[in-house]
Amino acid sequence: MKTSKEINIDKKNQFGAEILCIGSEILLGNIVNTNSQWIAEQLAILGIPHFRQTVIGDNPARLKEAILESSNRSQILITTGGLGPTPDDITTKIIADAFNTPLQQRNNILMDLKNKMKNKYSKLSESQKKQSLLPKGAKIINNYSGTAPGIIWSPKDNFTIITFPGVPSELKEMWRKEASNWLINNNFSKKIISSKVLHFAGISESLLADKIPHLLKANNPTVATYASTGEVKIRITAKGESLEETNRSIKPIEKELTKLTGLKCFGVDNTTLEEVVIKLLLSRKETIAVAESCTGGGIGSKLTKIPGSSKIFYGGVIAYNNSIKQDILEVPEEIINTHGAVSKQVVEAMAKGVQKKFKASWAISVSGIAGPTGGSKLKPVGLVNFCIKGPKTLITWEERFGSNKTREDIQKLSVLNALDRLRLSIIMEN
Amino acid sequence: MKTSKEINIDKKNQFGAEILCIGSEILLGNIVNTNSQWIAEQLAILGIPHFRQTVIGDNPARLKEAILESSNRSQILITTGGLGPTPDDITTKIIADAFNTPLQQRNNILMDLKNKMKNKYSKLSESQKKQSLLPKGAKIINNYSGTAPGIIWSPKDNFTIITFPGVPSELKEMWRKEASNWLINNNFSKKIISSKVLHFAGISESLLADKIPHLLKANNPTVATYASTGEVKIRITAKGESLEETNRSIKPIEKELTKLTGLKCFGVDNTTLEEVVIKLLLSRKETIAVAESCTGGGIGSKLTKIPGSSKIFYGGVIAYNNSIKQDILEVPEEIINTHGAVSKQVVEAMAKGVQKKFKASWAISVSGIAGPTGGSKLKPVGLVNFCIKGPKTLITWEERFGSNKTREDIQKLSVLNALDRLRLSIIMEN
After folding, report:
1. Do A33 and A108 reside in the same domain of the chain?
2. Are residues B29 and A11, on separate chains, in Cβ contact within 8 Å?
3. pLDDT digits over B156-186, tens only?
4. What sign results for the dihedral spanned by CA atoms B207, B212, B214, B218?
């Protein structure tokens, strides 16, 4: 495989695939372009390098320009959309125009269109017939569930266009039944690309990146970090001749990463924190209850998303109002009056209260200021107190997530932080 | 490969906006590019013509090429992604390079980055500092919830680049607070496209569509229905010279829709069911508590997402385990033994129990089988019982969401169904 440097210097050597999605509804923001993502994934599975995605509206001049540009840059152009019978379906005609090739009526497609009509006695309209006009020399991709066929066509050396309708289900079926085989049989599918995702908690993306500068510079496998609110992950992506080969090259990198990050790494691929916590408790045959103030049920809601959580999750108290903290969780009134509802003393009493009431092995409690109002200089928005009480554990801590954060982010960060410390506490207990 | 000069014949007529999303994870098919869709929608709202979307990986040469191409074709290039601290975040540097402009360290950003650090005494790492390097002359777009700022920069006549981070929540906030105003103040916003969304509950998309065939055919404004799990909405979109004009044409359509659908329509634009419930309770000075089994805290979590909910939401009990239903909510053991935990009798006792314990005006309770296991022929997965107890109201009901649904969907549908019936019950109480 060529490196990116070679590709760019040697402009005559067209390389890799591009995706061109055609449709004004995408440019208007009416729909999310999920076709691009799906095709990109398929290209990665086949190991076909893919360097650009483009979206163009139903405009002849701009579409032609985009097709010609791509024909000078890539080996394969995959298009979606614009194959249907309506006047704004212009893809096939513009592709033929771009390479000065006439359209030909294909009788087998006419037959197919006729067979697909509900009423066998009615005639195909002119607009329906339009779908049977394909560039001279183009191979047909049959449409199994819809009407408009696609094409595989090489209008010039080292450049092939493959077209699909915009309807995702039709596209997928046509890809699986015909296009993917064509790509394999014509030797475009060279190497396998496979990847593994590692999930982290309790570390920022930049701190994580600073720990592994040598890995981030690596070439095959490549290592990249990603972050969203409260979540950090690393993707290891390897290229190779086979799945065994890619797995073999991912393994040592994964090992090094987990060694460098220790308990910060809580799982791979689709693992979630709540899943890890539930599994740990199940393996120890221990139970848990929650006492939630500012998260309002968010921890319970996460834990119960996992099938089988009923075996270890007893439930909890959403103690949003201070009176509930006193009445149900038996937090002494003087503690609230002396230290405030958002304090280490109160979360400790909440955890102890819920653990006792619910007769659970573990209890976790949260009380904080999610904002946007209710903060003070001493106790600003974003300040959250936590307590975990286990068979032997008792820890309380506070986080300051920052008063610039939204209410939603503070609640989300609180839930993730609680689950992560719970995970670590359970691991540390014996 | 053609250079950008050759591609664009009429360079003098640059027009409209393009979107360029940067990130190898998009090309690998790891994530769906929702940022493009969101920005496209915002451009439509502002009436800024938008002709092309492109995705490029974290590759310097290809990124530079894409930027230069766009600079010869469009007036505005909006980019997302690649602004963070890691080595694969290259957007700002490549933009500066493309127009032979040096990067300058901005002290106000350094200060901002320092302020956003959790530990005020630790130092900014070199990779963190990278985010403060911006092209000379570029205006800053502040990042309110994350770290990496964006820029608004015109490196040449009639061409402006606006950059955003890839994190959707950061992007949206930066657009709303700064970029959108800049576009309006600099006269890019021309013909107005504006839309209004109506939200519905307790009605399916197809039933709703059947009520309004004449409206779905209309041209300006257009009317379209959308649906996702438990949520149905209608978007009315109008084009016009001014906001007054579009509002004037939307109003009668909105009126007709709400007349035809009555209480099924619960709000417009960004309104949520939980927000409506909280507002109703606030206006009546009434309070609420929840007793949740299969939703595990999901109703409480939704209600507490709304700022000010603490005034009317007392909290609740997550009674996941049957012993909790008895011990904390005082559901008599014989009711559970006779009718089962998922029964009208049990949810009624749960609602009464939590209303009494929490001294709340309203109580809502849920108990059901979220699956994937635990169902029987008589009580299949997807069966959920509910009860609402108000000052004068007492209703129990059951829903069968279908055993083909996922655990997550059954939990989500239960929460939305509970909130909608709560809304209707409060309205009916008068």
Report:
1. yes
2. no
3. 999 999 999 999 999 999 999 999 999 989 9
4. negative
